[in-house]
Design brief:
single chain, 318 residues, alpha/beta, Rossmann fold, 2 domains, eight-stranded mixed beta sheet, four-stranded antiparallel beta sheet, 10 helices, 29% helix, 23% strand, binds adenosine-5'-triphosphate, binds magnesium ion
């Protein structure tokens, strides 16, 4: 059974200006940790929020299927999903979450509040909290502190500890290192790697491909609401096929945190007004006439869960 399977997912924002097709027919499946990369506005957070069923209006999942460990999570009613899945099997570290810690409460109060929210019954709470902070490499003393007394790295660890409180099997981390300096980024990445070794499945979202190389076994590249390439991290890094993936990989700094050397020319399309053909057409160095006419389908490598695909006419035999 495939652990996480997303099929033909569409999640749109219905705005006064029109429909923003932020996730537009995204398909992938994985048994291992996955990284999702792509530039700002490509739909990464919308995809993540759809999986946790936390997309807020005007956003809505309009089509598709999401299966986690054989459970059809979009088909469940909200009460059941909340009771069985959200935070308990799938948890998320939201983009910029560490800035959302409540400044007037101590760390332990915020964690206790979370347990109350989940009607937690079980182990002694203080042991649970002390194990939770230990799991992310912090000492008990942080529990008594207020967020402003903690460094950025410590706050990010707390946010991760909170997401892990209900022992989820899938942790979605949306840009977990973005606001941190290089050394602290490395520490958070090491933490994520350790959690993965301990059995947690990760879905790591970032615009920084160098982070995914370290943490994820599979990778999905998003461009303008679509997943344009999907496969094993090794394969995609060794032999990137989509011209957008190639450009992204060329723009990876040699050292983490270093400024980008090359930029991808041009700007992404307007998701309110998606042109015919390939969405990368206007920026693609290999664009052909066909690319302007028809949106490329996903061209799969083979069957089974080990498949990868690329959405690009360059690889089509027709
Ligand atoms: N609440 C909203 N209402 C309308 N449009 C939205 C809303 N939230 C996101 N969008 C649009 O949906 C598209 C995808 O946004 P999303 O936040 O998923 O991208 P992202 O890949 O996570 O970007 P970033 O790297 O900046 O976090 C963008 O065009 C964005 O402007
Ligand atoms: Mg985002």
């Amino acid at each position: 059974m495939t652990r996480l399977e997303v099929s033909n997912l569409k999640a749109y924002y219905f705005t006064s200006k029109g429909v923003v097709k932020a996730v537009d027919d995204v398909t992938f499946s994985t048994n291992e940790s996955i990284g999702i990369a792509g530039e700002s506005g490509s739909g990464k957070s919308t995809l993540a929020l759809s999986i946790l069923r936390m997309l807020q209006p005007p956003g809505r999942v309009v089509d598709g299927k999401i299966m986690l460990d054989g459970i059809d999570i979009l088909a469940m009613d909200e009460h059941e999903f909340n009771a069985r899945i959200r935070w308990k099997r799938i948890a998320m570290v939201f983009q910029a979450a560490m800035n959302a810690l409540d400044p007037v409460y101590r760390v332990e109060e915020q964690m206790e509040e979370l347990l109350r929210y989940h009607d937690y019954v079980g182990d002694d709470v203080s042991t649970l909290l002390s194990n939770a902070v230990k799991q992310v490499g912090l000492g008990d003393d942080v529990l008594r502190r207020y967020p402003h007394e903690l460094s950025g790295g410590m706050k990010q660890r707390i946010v991760i500890a909170m997401a892990l409180l209900m022992k989820p099997s899938l942790l979605i981390a949306d840009e977990p290192t973005t606001a941190l300096d290089v050394l602290v980024q490395a520490q958070i990445i090491n933490l994520l790697k350790r959690l993965k070794r301990e059995g947690l499945m990760l879905m790591l979202i970032t615009h920084d491909l160098s982070i995914i190389a370290e943490v994820a076994d599979r990778i999905g590249i998003m461009y303008a609401g679509q997943m344009v390439e999907f496969g094993s991290t090794d394969q995609v890094y060794r032999e990137p096929r989509h011209p957008y993936t190639q450009a992204l990989l060329q723009s990876i700094p040699r050292l983490r945190g270093e400024k980008r050397l090359t930029y991808i020319k041009g700007s992404p399309i307007d998701l309110l007004n998606i042109p015919r053909g390939c969405r990368f057409y206007a920026r693609c160095p290999y664009a052909m006439d066909k690319c302007r006419e028809e949106d490329p389908p996903a061209l799969y490598d083979g069957g089974g869960n080990e498949y990868g695909y690329v959405r690009c006419w360059l690889y089509s035999r027709h």
